[in-house]
Amino acid sequence: MSIRFLLVLLTVLFFSTKTIAGSTQSNVSGSNTAIEGGYESSTTYESGSESSSTTTNSTTSNIRSAPPTAGAPSYNSMTQDVCAVGASAGIQTFGVGISGGKHFIDKNCERLKLSRILNDFGMKVAAVALLCQDERVFESMIQAGTPCPIDGKIGKAAQALWDKYDFERPDYKAYVKRMKLREKVKPVVDTKPLPADTSTNKKVSWTTPK
Question: Which of 127, 125, 102, 100 is nearest to 112 (CA)?
Answer without folding.
Answer: 127
